[in-house]
UniProtKB/TrEMBL annotation:
Coiled coil: none annotated. This is Peptidase M1 membrane alanine aminopeptidase domain-containing protein. The keyword Phosphoprotein does not apply. The lineage of its organism: Bacteria, Pseudomonadati, Bacteroidota, Flavobacteriia, Flavobacteriales. InterPro entries: Peptidase_M1_dom (IPR014782), Peptidase_M4/M1_CTD_sf (IPR027268). Residues 1-22 form the signal peptide. Pfam families: Peptidase_M1. Keywords: Signal. Residues 393-544 form the Peptidase M1 membrane alanine aminopeptidase domain.
Amino acid sequence: MNLKSRILVPSLAALFFTAAKAQEAPKYEYTEAFKPFFYPQTGTETRSASGQPGHVYWQNAVNYNLDISLNDAQDELTGTAEIIYTNNSPDNLGFLWLQLDQNLFKKDSRGNAIVPLSGSRNGAHGEDFDGGYRIKSVKLDGKDVRYTVSDTRMQIDLPKELKSRGGVAKIKIEYSFKSPKYGSDRMGIQDTKNGKIFTIAQWYPRMCVYDDVLGWNTMPYLGASEFYLEYGDITANITVPASHYVVASGELLNAKEVYTKEQNNRWEQARYSDKTVMIRPESEIGKTQAAGTKTWKFRINQARDFAWASSAAFILDAARINLPGGKKSLAISAYPAESAGEKAWGRSTEYTKAAIEHYSAKWYGYTYPAATNVAGNEGGMEYPGIVFCHMDSKGEELWGVTDHEFGHNWFPMIVGSNERLFAWMDEGFNTFINELSTEAFNKGEYYRKKNIAQAGGYIMNDNFEPIMVGPDNMKENSIGVLAYFKPGMGLQILRETILGPEKFDKAFRTYIDRWAFKHPTPWDFFHTMENVSGEELNWFWRGWFMNKWKIDQAVKNVKYVNGDFKSGAQITVENLGQLPMPTTVQVKFKDGTTQIVKLPVEVWKRNREWTFKVDSAKEIEQVKLDPESAIPDTNSKNNVWTWDTAQTKPVEKINIKDFTGTFGSKQVPVKITFAEKNNQLYAQATGQPEFPLEYTGDNTFTFEQAQISLKFSQDRKTITFSQGGRDFTFTKE
């Protein structure tokens, strides 16, 4: 039918020496939505056009041996970082770049300079202290080396180039810094009745990523955007006051040296328990006031970062995590007495265990020996194997933040995207998987299905930037929507409405598996989803992520065929917004029954409106788009048509056979033959394909695609043919 219509319109226009009247162009342009060449480049040797790493994909590696000491009275940390950096790239490197994120807290930092007078989540909340690194020495292979500090970056000039494809540089940096009380909502110091809780992150110089996309990734740390890091093995020796207990990324190596015999027995019990086991109860806080210091030793492999927490105030509990293939991990919680109780952090380990087990079974197995939830002053922050959540969180709020932060162990801890540029690739993906895990947790204890339709007017507000704008390049108030909510909703729509759960889940798991411990770009994700699902999705990427297109679909018209409901109905829907979507139409009949019609997105590839027939012998009460509220349509008012509110009066019933026959004209050398097929009138002009006609009442038929109107006389013997403002008279032969 579409093919015939495409040919018919210009043919009739030529026959009758006229063209359709000019109309105002609609918002929706299908040639723009579905235009080809969405991808900026084809496949390369490092990144395949299929979305997987190319046959010579490479990334550099870095191992860290870290020693750090905490002076809890001065809130100061002093340490040494030994860095073993391997250059796997095809390029010789004349210099190296490192990240010095603590320099955000210097008074003259760029991040501090952009904090508005109204305040910000980022930075140190106005705390007046001497922050940032104090670099004591930088050595390369045991010798002093020239370096330059530029805001939150350090450049080391190499005396000779670091060889490509395997060259190794050994760097040693001695440093110290004073911890902020509130470290940009990512680290800090929380006072409690039993002592301070130190949550420590961004605490050692870290290598910048050198990749095949941008070379050195040296964007400064401004507070809003997060991190882009290389993978490797990390050991950490953490020296703290002897009364402190330390939890950290990875595995504790010297448990017998730092825990009592009874506490170690409890740890062993927890490793085999699906119920929470108390390791250090509140009753033991303050019982032993040991003098001096104690060193805690940890190790984590194939990780991109390391964080830790230390306090004399910690209650500790733990339970076993069951992973696919019989593997095990350990869920751990560390929190002060103020946060205890079954309505608060007493369920933290239960939440942690459930989240890790769900994500492992559904997407990709958890890779670390422990998952630790720490109560601090952060709203919520994630690191490999450990997260910081606010000590005042409880109930549904604590589940939500725990689930979200541990979801980050998949994005970006396992799938190492560039958070500096593409916050949505970790926050948005994580927001999406959180919805599924919350539905699964404890038979939906905290789950409430979201009404996506109601969100359309909000998330598609013109005041928001596009999703693909980086977090440092959007208003701070936009970050929650553009990094979390909108991309998370986009993936939900892609799963539930566009691809279906089976296709989506297979493609999404493939993406995670392909890019585990690697560095994907948005294009790698887009390519993978299309190649695995087998569906063209450039229209969705273009509208939802690259632009801020709106969705607005509408019911334009509902008519009974020939005015008789027993002959079925013709329903016309429109795509008014710039972003097309598959269209679900619910037809509700007056007897209370319903019928669902699903239109694929392809109907919008060359149409702005679409008419389809509903085969039924029942009277229609209502026609509604998106009955499950799965699409964020910006105008819900035009999504519903009801018989009572329809502006058109009912079309009288007719007998189609009364209008059949052949008609000729003295004005043009054309004959038109009318025939009945399946109770619908078709017309065919001389030498042209036949086309269907729609009865609009008063002996008039139309063919809207060619803007043709045919009005029969009362005796059905003459026709007034109208097109493009001109009329022609035809007489029955």
